[in-house]
Known about the structure:
- 28% of the residues lie in helices and 28% in strands.
- By secondary structure, the chain is α/β, with parallel strands linked by helices.
- It has one domain (3-230): Vaccinia Virus protein VP39 (Rossmann fold).
- The strands form three sheets. A seven-stranded mixed β-sheet has the order 5-4-3-6-7-11-10. A two-stranded antiparallel sheet has the order 1-2. A two-stranded antiparallel sheet has the order 8-9.
- Helix 2 (30-40) packs across helix 5.
- The protein starts with a strand and ends in a 6-residue tail after the last strand.
- S-adenosylmethionine is lined by residues 30, 34, 48, 75-77, 79, 97-99, 102, 121-123, 140-142, 145.
- S-adenosylmethionine (SAM) is lined by residues 30, 34, 48, 75-77, 79, 97-99, 102, 121-123, 140-142, 145.
Amino acid sequence: MKSAVIGHSCNVNDKVKSRRSAETVNELDLKEHWDKVYSNNPENKLGWYETDLSPMLKLIMKAAINKSARILIVGAGSTTLVDELLDEGYSNIIASDISEVALKKLAGRTVSNKVEFIADDLTKPTRLGNIGPVDLWIDRAVLHFFTKESGQNTYFDLLKSKIRSKAYVILAEFDLNGAKLCSGLPVQGYSEEMLTEKLGTAFELIDSFDHTYIMPSGAERPYIYTLFRKKHHGGK
Ligand SMILES: C[S@@+](CC[C@H](N)C(=O)[O-])C[C@H]1O[C@@H](n2cnc3c(N)ncnc32)[C@H](O)[C@@H]1O
């Protein structure tokens, strides 16, 4: 089984980990890896923790879905976006992640019957395969962890099978100049063109912009934010 080298990363243990030379995360241990990240670190110290959600909210507002539309947040972790969406009145939210620890933290904080929590692996989905059609798919800082083509293909196959006609997809990932490792794992940066290519001709690009996220440590992480819409009659 291929392994990922641990090095510079996005979480508070970066410095400790970067001193180690040959430590690896086996693909089979990814759930354990992420559970440990969420167990061992306060949420507001994680290298992706946000208080300013304005770039994401700008794209959600642009999609202009109604408040009862089904929103799937993949790789949600313990994101503050869920709190924000509940405050805005959205009532049909699914938060999914490989880490049950993250989802428990999120569920403990948000306490709402408007949010469903689904623990699943996006590169080997089981439970997510059973959900109904989605009106808005939101991914911030998740897809970029799937460095193998097989994992990316599984991710996009799932996405394409769940997005209804005229529904929206937001992908916010490290850009091509971004970090090469995050949370000890290698990442694949993206451009607007690469994401457009991955989604295929059934999707049209609605908006796209660069955003520099400032980590709790003060370091900068450049992201590409994109909003796509599935065409009514699209290609493949
Ligand atoms: C950098 S964090 C971003 C969390 C959240 N999207 C946010 O913006 O706060 C990446 C998230 O992806 C999740 N993740 C990583 N690999 C995954 C996989 N194969 N399937 C589902 N979730 C995964 C991790 O557990 C983690 O919560």
